Amino acid sequence: MASEKNQIYHERQRLQFCLLHTLNNLFQQKDAFTRANLNSIAEKLVLDDPNKEIWTPFSLVFKPHHNSITGNYDINVLIAALEEKGKTVIWHDRRNGASAIDLDDGMLMGIVINVPVRRYAGLWKGRHWIALRKIDGVWYNLDSDLHAPHCFKDNGEVGEYLDYILNHDGQVLLVKNDRQ
């Protein structure tokens, strides 16, 4: 198993770039996306928005879809980035539970999770992006906060983890390959 883990690409958390790390971990490739890519996507979303926000001095840092200094990209950037790579994002309805997710679906590229987090002794509340991906028949938690990828023993354990996420205000997004 150790040699298998060496083959798994895993970026670690830096500032609030968890979406960037999540995407690169999901695609198993360094620089599948870069800060410049995601910033460009965020800026395009602003230009395409018919209800453009009014500019203020804070707009230089706190942009509608991300923080220009620390990252912290939103769901709109995630969806646009994945669509650029030919993926479809499906928001999983928490009422159905994890058992409704077919973890062996050949079209399922991976799973992106958004969870609430508390940092700095609970003074800062935010959300964190996490990627799950099946690699060589094994599901891995590629959370950038982990020191190394965590492998799940089987689909049942993945389902239990997803149910825990859903029951604790987390969001589960299924990333599917588009049909050719």
From TrEMBL:
Q: Which Gene3D superfamilies match?
A: 3.90.70.40
Q: Which UniProt keywords apply?
A: Hydrolase, Protease, Ubl conjugation pathway
InterPro entries tied to this protein: JOSD1/2, Josephin
Catalytic residues as annotated in Swiss-Prot or TrEMBL? 18, 128, 143
Give a yes or no for keyword Magnesium in this entry: no
Molecular function terms from GO: cysteine-type deubiquitinase activity
Look at the named UniProt entry and state the broad enzyme category this protein falls under.
hydrolase
Q: Name one Pfam family in it.
A: Josephin
Q: What catalytic reaction does the record list?
A: Thiol-dependent hydrolysis of ester, thioester, amide, peptide and isopeptide bonds formed by the C-terminal Gly of ubiquitin (a 76-residue protein attached to proteins as an intracellular targeting signal)
The record's section on PANTHER family has: JOSEPHIN 1, 2, JOSEPHIN-LIKE PROTEIN
- Can you say what this protein is called? ubiquitinyl hydrolase 1
Species annotation: Corchorus olitorius
Q: Please spell out the taxonomic lineage of the organism that makes this protein.
A: Eukaryota, Viridiplantae, Streptophyta, Embryophyta, Tracheophyta
